[in-house]
Amino acid sequence: MAGEWNKDGLRAVRGALHAQDWAALLAALRRGPAREVLQLAGDGVAMAAAQGLPGAVETAASFLGALQERGFRGDQELADRLPTTTEHAAIPLLRPLAVDLEMLVMLLEGDPAESGGRLDLFTGECRPAFTEELDARYEAEEADDPERWLRVPALGSRAGNRDMELFIEGLGDAALADRLRIAVGGRGTFRRFKDVLARDERAWRRYHRLSDERQRGRARAWLAEEGYFPRFPAPRRTAQP
Predict the structure, then answer these.
(1) List of the chain residues with pLDDT < 70
(2) Could you tell me if residue 240 is inside a domain?
(3) 211: which residues sit within 8 A by CB, 6+ positions away?
(4) Are 115 and 173 found together in one domain?
(5) What is this structure's pTM?
(6) 3-state per-residue secondary structure call for the chain
(7) 75/72 Cα distance (integer angstroms)
(8) Count of domains in the chain?
(9) Could you tell me which residues come within 8 angstroms of residue 187 by beta carbon, excluding any fewer than 6 positions away?
(10) Structure confidence by residue, pLDDT tens digits, 103-138
(11) pLDDT at 241
(12) Residue 203 belongs to a domain
C-alpha cells in the first residue's frame, strides 16, 4: 500500500463511490492508507462485502478494526454496518436514507445565522434554510410535514475548531505546529490556519482528509440520533440504444 494519498488516488476512490463500482473501490483503496478514508469509503466497502466481491470481507474487517481503534464520533455507527464474515452486518434499527453526507455537513456545521435547513425524508435532498424563501415549491403546510421533512440545526464551528486542534496535536513538524497554534484562537481562526497551511501543500491535504473524516462522522452520528443511516441512491440505469 502506498504511504500516503495523492490527488489521483483520492480521485479514484471518489470516482468508484460515485459510480457505485465496488470492485474499483477495493482496487483504489490499495493506493493509500485506508485509515484516512474510513468514513469516506466505509459504506462502499460494506456494499462490496454484501455482494461477496473478492477481498471485500477482509477489507471490511480491516475497516472495522481501524474504526474501533480510532473512535471518532460516528465511527461506531459506521462499524455497525460492516460485516466480519460473509453474512450481512447486524445494522441497528435505523431507516436508510439516500443522503449526501457532504451536503448534510454544510447544513450542520455552517454559521448558525446563515445555515441550517431541512432534510427531505423522501429523497434525501438537503435544503438550506435560505433557499426556502426563494422556492415557491415549499408551501408552509408542506414544509412543516414531519413525515416529509427533518429540521437540520446549524451547530456552528466549534467542532471544526477541535479538528484543527487535533491536527496540530498529530503533526510531526514541531515548527509548523507552533505556527499553527499561534494562528488558532479568536475570530478568523480558520482563515489564519489556512494561510499558514497554504505554504505546505502536503500538510494541507492531510488536514483536509482528517477534517473530512471527522465531519462525515459527525453527520453520520447526527443521522443515527434521528433514526437514520446513509445509503447510496439506486444506481441510474443506462439508456438502451
Answers:
(1) 1-2, 84-92, 131-144, 236-241
(2) no
(3) 160, 163, 167
(4) yes
(5) 0.88
(6) CCCCCCHHHHHHHHHHHHHCCHHHHHHHHHHCCHHHCHHHHHHHHHHHHHCCCCCHHHHHHHHHHHHHHHCCCCHHHHHCCCCCCCCCCCCCCCEEECCCHHHHHHHHCCCCCCCCEEEECCCCCEEEHHHHCCCCCCCHHHHCCCCCEEEECCCCCHHHHHHHHHHHHCCCCHHHHHHHHHHCCCCCHHHHHHHHHCCCHHHHHHHHHHHHHHHHHHHHHHHHHHCEEECCCCCCCCCCC
(7) 5
(8) 2
(9) none
(10) 999 999 887 777 788 999 999 999 988 766 555 555
(11) 47
(12) yes
Q: Which amino acid is at 143?
A: A
Note whether residue 106 is domain-resident: yes
Classify residue 214: in a domain, yes or no: yes
For residue 150, give its domain range. 96-233
* Cβ contacts of 231-236, under 8 Å, gap ≥ 24: 231/43, 231/96, 231/97, 231/98, 232/20, 232/43, 232/44, 232/47, 232/98, 233/98, 233/124, 234/98, 235/20
How crowded is the C-beta side of 153, counted as CA atoms within 13 Å?
7
